[in-house]
């Protein structure tokens, strides 16, 4: 396989000393993966990981993933690969790429040294978000759209976490779902009730932490067990707990826990270690319902992406939350 000249120039490689091979390990998105190996001036080998994809979708996906990986890498360098950049191929039209550190993966649950996943995630979730250009304080959202699966998400900055979650996550994904699955009045009505009744009551800015609200922090955004592993980043002699394939944004830290709960793999001992470092948000007794509210987004996203089966999980979470936190008229549940 010949390496595209746009990648050669981005990385400053010598094409005669560089080869490209398949990276194997297919993920959940439509991107293809490969490994770039090049000789360093001291005679050693250096490797990069490259994703490639077609069309505008891939361009958006890689721009988001580049910014996501670097937002995490800058806060906790040992947690995820850094991105070297993204762009369009020069020698083939309509194709884009993303190049990152190569991870030597040893698999989920394999022995690891250094900080644990809980410690690294806690460090990430206690590093305050930077203030975006043009704003006077940190915001919820992200500078670019990011993809969770193949869905490009709206990350428009907001000073209100509740507004961001209602508009840029739940209402946004319901619209995507309408495009892929057609109109669904029952689902639409429950999402709207969740946004207007449950969200203000459960994660309203004046409700959390006794009126102090929550501080935006970087979250991975797609942290299911398939995007976490033990592995070696460049410079690591032993495997550590690492993550990859992120769709980051600046969010309430508990937002991360929704997808982690949905797909499992982060059990009670993980959570107890993590919450010693990142205490649950107040009111603590509503924590399970907040995590369910955050899990809801991923059921709706999976419904938008894959249809059918994921609708019932979303409906049951919404019915439960509306019956607890909604207004008194529950006739539509
Ligand atoms: N930086 C990397 N180095 C080596 N292998 C990687 C790296 N990132 C991901 N992979 C492997 O490639 C697979 C697909 O990558 P991933 O980023 O998860 O993409 P997808 O969006 O397709 O799920 C992963 O499951 C993992 O096995
Ligand atoms: Mg993945």
Strand order of the largest sheet: 1-2-3-5-4
Enumerate how many helices there are, as a single number: 9
Distance between the termini: 56 Å
If you compute it from the alpha carbons, what radius of gyration comes out, rounded to the nearest whole angstrom? 21 Å
- SSE sequence, one letter per element: HEEEHEEEHEEHHEEEEHHHH
CATH superfamily of the largest domain: Aminoglycoside phosphotransferase (APH), C-terminal lobe
3D shape:
globular
In this entry the ligands are:
adenosine-5'-diphosphate, magnesium ion
Into which percent range does the helicity of residues fall? 25-40%
**Count of DSSP strands:** 12
CATH fold topology of the largest domain: Aminoglycoside 3'-phosphotransferase, Chain: A, domain 2
Summarize model confidence as the mean pLDDT.
95
* CATH architecture verdict of the largest domain: Alpha-Beta Complex
The CATH class designation of the largest domain is Alpha Beta
Q: Report the uncertain regions.
A: none
Description:
This protein has 333 residues and is of the alpha+beta class. The protein has two domains: 5-101, 2-Layer Sandwich (Phosphorylase Kinase, domain 1); 117-325, Aminoglycoside 3'-phosphotransferase, Chain: A, domain 2 (Alpha-Beta Complex). Helix content is 40%, strand content 18%. It is built from nine helices and twelve strands. Helix 3 packs parallel to helix 7 and helix 8 (287-306) packs antiparallel against helix 9 (310-325). It is globular. The model has no long low-confidence stretch (mean pLDDT 95). Magnesium ion binds at residues 27-28, 226-227, 245.
